[in-house]
Amino acid sequence: MIRTEKLSVHYGAFTAVRNASLSVKQGSITAIVGPSGCGKSSFLSALNRMTDLIPSARITGKVMIDCCDIHDQCRSPAELRRCVGMIFQKPNPFPMSIRRNIELALREHGTRDRAELKSITERVLTDVGLWEEVCDRLDMPALQLSGGQQQRLCIARALALQPQVLLMDEPCSALDPIASAKVESLITSLRGRYTIVIVTHNLAQARRIGDDLAVFWVNKGAGEIIEQGPAEDVFETPSHSISAAYLSGTRG
Amino acid sequence: MADADSVVQPQVVCASSTSSSMGDRATFRDGTVSRDGPMSRGAAMSRAGATFRDRATFRDSAKFRTVGVRVKESVATAIVWAAAGLIVAVLGWILADIFLKGVSEVSLSYLWNDMEDAGRGGGILPIIVSTLAILMVTLATSIPLSLATAIALTEHTRDLSTAGRLVRRSLDVLAAVPSIVFGLFGNAFFCIVLGLGYSIWSGGFTLACMALPIMIRTTEQAIRAVPDEYRYASAALGMSRSTTMFRIILPAAAPGLAAGLVLGIGRALAETAALIFTSGYVTRMPESLSDSGRALSVHIYDLAMNVPGGNARSCAAAIVLVALLLMLNLLSAMLTRYVGQKTGTSMFERNDG
Amino acid sequence: MTSSSPNTLFPFNADRWLAFVTRTCALFSAIIVLLVVTFLALESWPAIQHVGFGRFVTDASWHPLSGLFNLIPMIVGTALTTIGSLFIAVPLGIGSAVFGCFYAPPRLAGFHRRSVELLAGVPSVVFGLWGLVVLVPLLAPLGGSGQSLFAATLVLGLMIVPTIALTSQSALQAVPSQLISGAAALGLQRWVIVWRIALPAGKSGIKTGLLLATCRAMGETMAVLMLAGNVAKMPDSIVSPIRTLTTNVALEMGYATSEHRAILFVSGLVLMSVVCIVILLMDFAGGWKNG
Fold first, then answer.
1. A230 touching C, CB under 8 A?
2. Cβ of C11 and A76 within 8 Å?
3. What residues of A are in the B interface, CB distance below 8 Å?
4. What is the mean pLDDT of residues A170-180?
5. Nearest residue of A to residue C14 by CA position?
6. Given CB atoms, is B56 within the 8 Å cutoff of chain C?
7. Contacts of A251 by beta carbon, 8 Å cutoff, 6+ apart
8. Model pLDDT, residue C178
9. Do residues C75 and C245 make contact, with C-beta atoms less than 8 angstroms apart?
10. Inter-chain touch B174–C116, beta carbons under 8 Å
């Protein structure tokens, strides 16, 4: 589904990610782990061209999603981002009602029919488990929801566009344990229907939900993938010494 | 930020140094037995011994708090309080005097009637109408222009780009240009070159030039204050920048925008010198925007300087102007407080997931 | 701040439109200053051509109707009122800022700040009116009619106090609190902390405020117009009536023709140039500080 070939992300003269080659299978959940500052978020941002928003960012290497090069001149980033959704570390619902949060992007991408909007809203909110909680107050400001609810709303918002891929940048790290558990179970319920790439600090979480694992580490000043493969294999029998140390908690 | 709270504490510390509580903890005194410190510490101190004794010991510190120092502190405090008090007193004096001298002339009919006797009688309705008309022209010109420029500065130029810097610098200069110079410019450009003559158009456009820098500055601040998260979320959903701007960022920045608007209005209302040579002196009720009209501030000036015996009426007009500005000031304060409340209201404390 | 790299700049037409319109407006806003300078220069040109800069200082006096165009009395008037007003405003303004930051209890600090902001909002005509109606009679016993250099300078000083007070207060509040705490922990007295640590640390912000206040004082017209007496001669004493460049323009613009009018534009140009230079200096100095 997703394949990167020697992807490097540069911010001006600083290289955040070097020669990252990753393969992600369709419908799987791939966890990207590694200590802070090793380029995991930069890597993720490169996958849906969010790096374009940063003036000094430069990408080298290839990113293929569904066998299409994302930097192909014929495709716009907007189209790409409709197919590849992103969930951020800190929940960022728009400062408007719950309903509008979901409908805004839908309207932008062409869905105007009211009945259709309503049904999509109900569907995605049910998918994320929010429907019972908010069905009677859809016009309430989204910012009044709790942190976990906001994050689930953000996921619903992305799901409304029916993407193929979901990129998640530490979606649970800003949440308390109970909310985190709810979001985590939501993510596992999406397995199979969506291809998910999740960056996480939490090795236990990666172990719980990841089908595949990629370990990032800083090597010569830039982040590199030092090991990747099925999660169980990498956790049980890591082939790289550093990843072995990191995954067992000996190094942080 | 060093706010008043965090700085009051040092004063407390200094004050208590004169009390006995500090003096009891004589742990450094000679490094010998301390009254309430642990023995081991005292012993360690005495081992450090000579080096400690060479420094300014607490025992000796009393001599620094001489009478001279305390007097200087009191004098400084007195000076500072006097300065602050003087400013507030002057403000009160000005407002009170204007009020007392003019209040007898102010009434509902004053605001509603036409003018008589060069302003010594009747009301100021034509003046109010002219002022509002000029304000309308100013706002109609400067609001779109300032909004567009602010959007360009925040979204379409990189922070340190040359174009952005040039625009900002030219606006800085524009903000500092004296109002009489604007009067000259307005006269030369709007009245003569553009052929608008002494009219509400000319006055309005000139004031728009003057209000533009401050409105652009506040609009830009309001837009920048909107958290980047919304922009990222919007981009991740593949939404266009114009949708992001008009449906997410501007509504979120609305109170800040309104506060800027209010500031712009205040600036325009208070302006006099630029209007004298662009919208003129005429006291008749303006029939169209091409007519000349006298603004409230110009009226105050004219009654005070050119009309003998017009002082009281001038004060009355000043009361109207100051009252308007006070209301605007209040509105702006409420709006800025509302902005402060809105940012950072997401409820992360709730734990029900 | 988000921006876009060229290859993803405008996938949407609406975006292209928005960028075009906003950039055009920004350009328009930026050239207003140029327009002002251009028209001032255009209108001044006849004066410079026919009269020449030299005569602005060598003519006998300012009697435009007789063709005498010595601007020196007005320049001196501007200089004196500006400097005098700074003398009044700087201690008051900085004192007020220090009060608000370091001496006032929190609620009083808020009240004081709002009062200063209110004073900042009082229009110059109202200041002039108050000066005319209240101060001038009080000052008349000192000599002359009361409308004098002294009256104008006094009120001008009061007018620019809020500019200095508010910018200085911002500068002082921006001083890192660790600096203050550190000084207090060393047992320094409050006034020492203010005088030796906070004020030097806030120096650049305070200087900015001073420059802004200077520009404001130089450019002030209405209050000075109502209080300075408006006689175009060099002042003999502090209670002599004077004119400044600004009030000169305001008084004579109404009936000035051709050369006379052009010379008024020259004085406008001079004022504008001084302000430009001050602001640009400030911007450059600030720019260097930011690296």
1. no
2. yes
3. 48, 50, 53, 55, 77-82, 85-86, 88, 90-96, 104-105, 108-109, 143-150, 154, 157-158, 161, 174-176, 178-183
4. 88
5. A108
6. no
7. A242, A245
8. 76
9. yes
10. no
The pLDDT tens digits of the residues spanning B243-272 come to 888 989 998 888 888 888 888 898 889 989
Q: Rounded CA gap, B110 and B128, in Å?
A: 11
* pLDDT reported for residue B58: 55
Looking at residue B160, what is its pLDDT?
A: 61
Kindly report the nearest CA distance between residue A226 and chain C, in angstroms.
30
| Chains near C (3 or more Cβ pairs under 8 Å) | A, B
CA atoms within 13 A on the CB side of C287: 12
B252–A contact, CB cutoff 8 A: yes
| d(C-alpha A246, C-alpha A244), whole Å | 6
C147 interaction partners in chain B (CB closer than 8 Å): none
Residue type present at position B88:
V
What does pLDDT average to over chain A? 87
What would the mean pLDDT of B113-122 be, rounded to a whole number? 70
* Residue ranges for chain C with pLDDT beneath 50: 1-9, 288-291
Q: Which residues have C-beta within 8 Å of that of residue A178, sequence separation ≥ 6?
A: A148, B351, B352, B353
Residue of C nearest to A49 (CA): C8
Among A58, A48, A79, residue whose Cα is nearest residue A195: A48
pLDDT given for residue B87 in this prediction? 93
Query: Is C5 in contact with A57 (Cβ distance < 8 A)?
Result: yes
Q: Which helix (H) or strand (E) holds A199?
A: strand A195-199
**Cα–Cα distance measured from residue A96 to residue A144, given in angstroms and rounded to the nearest whole number:** 10
Give the per-residue pLDDT at B345.
38
Amino acid at A111: T
Mean pLDDT of B152-161: 74
Greatest CA span in chain A, whole angstroms? 56
In chain A, pLDDT over 90 holds for what percent of residues?
17
Chains linked to A by 3 or more Cβ pairs within 8 Å: B, C
Looking at the DSSP assignment, which residues form a beta bridge with residue A223?
A: A17, A218
Which residue type does B172 have? D
Distance CA C200, CA C187 (A): 19
Q: What is the ipTM of this complex?
A: 0.85
The answer to whether the Cβ–Cβ distance between B237 and A79 falls below 8 Å is: no
Task: Specify the length of chain A in residues.
Answer: 252
Task: Please count the residues of chain C.
Answer: 291
User: How far is Cα B200 from Cα B284, in angstroms, rounded to an integer?
Assistant: 13
Separation between Cα atoms, residue A184 and residue A204, nearest integer Å? 12
Beta bridge partners of A87: A168
Residue A29, H or E segment: strand A29-33
Instruction: Name the band, by pLDDT with cuts 50, 70 and 90, for residue A167.
Output: very high
Put the strands of the sheet holding A222-230 in their side by side order.
Answer: A68-69, A57-65, A2-11, A14-24, A222-230, A212-219, A29-33, A195-199, A165-169, A84-87
Q: What is the pLDDT of residues A71-113, one digit of tens each?
A: 877 777 777 888 888 898 888 888 888 998 888 888 877 778 8
pLDDT (tens digit per residue) in B224-236: 888 888 999 998 9
Alpha carbon separation from C244 to B223, B274, C44, C72, C79 (Å, rounded): 41, 17, 18, 10, 8
In this prediction, residue B65 carries a pLDDT of: 54
C12 touches chain A (CB under 8 A): yes
Contact residues for A82 (Cβ-Cβ < 8 A; gap 6+): A109, A161, A163, B237, B238
Q: Which among B235, B239, B252 has CB closest to A95?
A: B252
pLDDT in tens, B324-345: 888 888 888 888 777 666 654 3
When CB atoms are compared, the residue of A90, A96, A105 closest to B229 is: A90
Q: Chain B residue with minimal CA distance to A183?
A: B353
Pairing state of beta strands A29-33 and A212-219? parallel
